[in-house]
Amino acid sequence: MRVLSWRPARWLTGLAVLGAVLWHTGADPFVAGVQALDAPTLALGAGLAVPITCACAWRWHLVARGLGVAVAPAAAVASCYRAQFLNIVLPGGVLGDVHRGVRHGRLAGDTGRGVRAVAWERTAGQVVQALVAVGLLLLLPSAVRASAPWVLGALVVLAAVAGLVVVGTGPSWVGRVLRALRDDWRHGVLARAAWPGVLLASLLAVAGHLATYLLAARAVGVAASTATLLPLAVLVLVAAGLPTNVAGWGPREGAAAWTFGVAGLGADQGVATAVAYGAIVAVASLPGAVVLVAGTARRGARREAPGPALLTAVAVEGQARG
Length: 322
Description:
mainly alpha, 14 helices, 0% strand
């Protein structure tokens, strides 16, 4: 019996979650989430995406610089927009970032470090987001406060793994891998010149995503207070970061249906909000399509342009004929 590989399995997981939500709520909340959006809402969402993208690009710049594969801030912003667009249109929700890491690694002459720089900056962002989630769940009264121990438990596991990485001990190849990870984190994420910026950039990105989610909730007509919505939103965002989605869909809608249902706001409103959020994010990522097309056009022009050797040969041939 053939074992299903991890990549198709995680996509199927996202599809299964999305199918379960659709079976439970029907298609009406999905339609309502899209119909609730208008041009001003989408424009505001695109505006919120600018500081979010710049914060993520800054975080990447800091981590990549520490790993010796520095990326210029302007190039980082363009690459992050392209990655966001690819994350939206491709299954898995991370393929755009994989492309970002591989592409920059090749340009920098070290594909491995390029990919690891993206992986670590994304991991740092997820850790900060989880910490914010725990803080909001503990500080703000909500029906989903019982979820705080689960998020905290996940953080403890991450901290234990991080501790092993920092120590960097273990037999044979395990020890070597841990020491390599330790060096990456020491120089890329936890370096004195990097970690304050990484933390601040991650907090700015989380704040921007929360603001976008609140915008989506208001657009679909959710009247609950901001204090009520924030704990729900942060849990949905944590779920949305799981690499088991299909172009962003799946766990996000499942978490929204559950959290809004537990909070007494209705699973339908939760799904509609998640769908509206996804649509806002998709529209806000469209500058990435422009970056992608422009990059493809430049590569095509370079392939079609005659190389220096060909130009020299033509010049020599012309002089000989003259």
